[in-house]
Amino acid sequence: MPDDIPMPAAVAARPRDARGYPVPAITPWEDGQPQFARTGVARTFLCAAERRCSICATEMAPGPVWRVVGGEEVDAIEAALRDGRPYRNRAPTAEAPGHRACMLYAAIVCPWLGRPNARRGQAAVVPGLAVDRGDARGASGAVVGFEAYEFEYSELVLFRFAGLMEFRRYETGVDQLPELAAAIADETAMPPATPDYLGRDEAAAQRAFEAYVERLLGPQLQ
């Protein structure tokens, strides 16, 4: 059960599915059900533009952000650290950033991120992430902190990260359980409310996204 794993307060405040699992901010909803195998472009854009965590939807303070990586990227980061070289993901990735505690939680509870033998439920082919249905994560995962991120939007929302500042490699997500518990123990305030358009209402998310795009890019041809 989800409550068996300690949750950051902001994650615990998220809408839940029928099983009681919290639904990440970037997960789209359809017919009242979260679509865990998909990442919503509108929701990802809104989180990126408003500097919100892709897991809990609350704002991220200025400063570092975190993401979870797997497979070859884990080895590339570790090699850069070993050789004393700076690391930057030159190829953009579709994996959005979040709070440290939220990403530690995701590394534990997400089957594909948490276990090397777990299989991807749905194919994904975008720059920085090309996996087929049934692909495994790879031997290792890592929770990684970066000083900054930038993003671009062109049909998809893609990210680049710079300034590697933390690297927590793991074989299974539960390896991060003590660190997650410590991060939660350090929380000092109740999480702020999140906007309705990052809750259950997919139409609201789409409207907010379209308003942003029109404001930033001008009216788009249909």
In words, what does this structure look like?
The chain is of the alpha+beta class. The protein has one domain. 29% of the residues lie in helices and 20% in strands. The strands form 3 sheets. Strands 3-6-7 form a 3-stranded antiparallel beta sheet. A two-stranded antiparallel ribbon has the order 1-2. It is globular. The model is unreliable at 119-134 (pLDDT under 50).
Percent in strands? 15-25%
Which series of helices and strands comes N to C?
A: HEEHEHHHEEEEHH
Largest sheet: 3 strands, antiparallel
Count of runs of 4 or more consecutive helical residues:
7
Taking all Cα atoms into account, the compactness measure Rg is: 17 Å
Keywords, please?
222 residues, 20% strand, 7 helices, three-stranded antiparallel beta sheet, single chain, two-stranded antiparallel sheet, alpha+beta
Q: Topology of this structure?
A:
Elements: H1 9-12, E1 29-30, E2 33-34, H2 41-49, E3 65-70, H3 72-83, H4 100-109, H5 111-114, E4 124-126, E5 129-131, E6 141-154, E7 156-170, H6 177-185, H7 202-217
Antiparallel strand pairs: 1-2, 3-6, 4-5, 6-7
Helix pairs in contact: 2-7, 4-6
Q: What's the quick description here?
A:
By secondary structure, the chain is α+β, with helices and mostly antiparallel strands. Helices cover 29% and strands 20% of the residues. The protein has one domain.
